[in-house]
Amino acid sequence: MKRIPCMEAVVAVLESEGVDTVFGIPGAAILPLYAALRGSSVRHVTVRHEEGGTHAADGWARVTGNVGVCIGTSGPAGTNMITGLYTALADSIPIICVTGQAPRAKLHQEAFQAVDIVEIARPVTKWAVQLKEPAQAPWVFREAFRVARSGRPGPVLVDLPIDVQRGTCLYDRDLDAPLPVEAPRPLPGAVRAAVDLLRRARRPLILAGGGVVIADAAGELRDLAEHLQVPVQVTLMGKGAFPEDHQLFAGMAGVQTQTRWGNAAFLESDLVLAVGARFGDRHTGDLETYRRGRRFVHVDIEPTQIGRVFEPDLGVVGHARLTLAAMAAEARRSTPARGPGRWPKRVAELRRTLLRRDDFDDVPIKPPRVFREINDFFGPDTTFVTAIGLYQIWSGQFQKTYLPRRYLVCGQAGPLGWEVPAAMGVKCAHPERRVVAVAGDYSFQFLMEEIAVAAQYRIPFVIVMINNEYLGLIRQAEIPYDMNYAVDLHYGEGGIDHVKLMEAFGCPARRVERPGDIRDALAWASAASERERLPVLVEVMVEREANAAMGPSLDAVTEFEPPAGQRLALAVDWSD
């Protein structure tokens, strides 16, 4: 074994774990790690804010399925990472945040930028640890990767005192490799019971959550659904787990991001097989309404998720891909392949007759028209990222997704500003892909400094900004209070000029005010982005008072009227 600087061993671990890009900001307390990075194959992207770095690592991780890495120095660098750690924990995204730290002997003396970041980060990580000895360095990082990947994936923080970083350790990269990650298999009896419930139900649904995407289980999901002819719904985090042009696609149920026909189909169902879904409150709404009249089978890799929100009729612990594969095999063994029956045809009727309008020609532009143009222009391999607000809700309601890891959204934590750095992370991971960030005007302003990063490193992507010059979601939430307080973002005639802001960063931008101009602007932006190798903005000015359809429960949704001539009888006789 050769004795080497312990930070060189850490970088060797990063390389062997498949990390090709890290995002961070150097500082005095983390320079030994940066010195080791300098001679490695790992690309470093210098961000403008540590939160932006965590979101970039998050986007990289979501689209690759690997562990993203963000690096910062001591003190405020670590505290700036907390929002990104929380976002990753909430959405089950594996990232590692590395922080520098004051010398061990100074930690109790209120040294400059010395803060107990381990204790601060502990509630928003799977594991937060401070390296105590140089000899531990490669092994702590091996464990960090294993923890981040295992079970329900999530974030890890590793804190590195500067004196530890300067130490050496015995290490041979040829004798080391990533630690194995166990993928739990479901119990055969539980699989048989779940398939039996699915076979016997008259109006079953499969609910695919983000766990199906994380587990790369889209193929197994489709096998099971097609063999038994069971319609499939997705949660917001599960978008892309099942192609939305498939005849068995049953939309999305929920109180915010939902389809009208998805809500109707859910309310008519009598059994829900939920795989890798956590029953978030924006999906379920009122639990009494959500549960009434139907049974639930809950499949999850994390045992403590089962029963957390409500008690299912059957819980199954297992990796989503292995569990769906086992269920598909059991279904083939016990049941001949089914043809389309009354229930799938009913779901298709709901889909045909309960569409939302998106063909508005109004000026100012109505938001659904923006998403109609996005759907029509961009191909199925485009990767979209979006954050939180009315534009996320409209995106969830109107955007179509066909492939896994092509629709990325910060679903549970919902930090504003997520989409621009996340888009950078996606593009760094897949330079060949077209990447589109759908953003609101206020969210864009949260971390717009990261545009400078994309410009510096020539990271091209398109930003479609839905600008209503409001804190739109809060304005809509305030309506019952008969107030419109502190939500106006309209600063003078025309508001903030985002086009000029982009140009100040050296990036092209265009503003659109008429619906007929949206498609040409998207085509221009896509071409300009790849030609100039820069982020390009299309700012779409939409109706200021536009609201998104949502309600307190999934049976109380008001929205845009269906296309003319379409009618629906919600009461159906299933007696035969």
TrEMBL record:
Its EC number is 4.1.1.47. InterPro entries: DHS-like_NAD/FAD-binding_dom, THDP-binding, Thiamin_PyroP_enz_cen_dom, Thiamin_PyroP_enz_TPP-bd_dom, TPP_enz, TPP_enzyme_TPP-bd. It catalyses: 2 pyruvate + H(+) = (2S)-2-acetolactate + CO2. Gene3D superfamilies: 3.40.50.970, TPP-binding domain. It comes from Planomonospora venezuelensis. CDD domains: TPP_PYR_POX_like. Residues 8-119 form the Thiamine pyrophosphate enzyme N-terminal TPP-binding domain. GO terms for molecular function: acetolactate synthase activity; flavin adenine dinucleotide binding; magnesium ion binding; tartronate-semialdehyde synthase activity; thiamine pyrophosphate binding. Residues 388-540 form the Thiamine pyrophosphate enzyme TPP-binding domain. This is Tartronate-semialdehyde synthase. Residues 191-326 form the Thiamine pyrophosphate enzyme central domain. One of its GO terms (cellular component) is acetolactate synthase complex. Belongs to the TPP enzyme family. Keywords: Lyase, Thiamine pyrophosphate. It is an enzyme of class 4 (lyase). GO terms for biological process: isoleucine biosynthetic process; L-valine biosynthetic process.
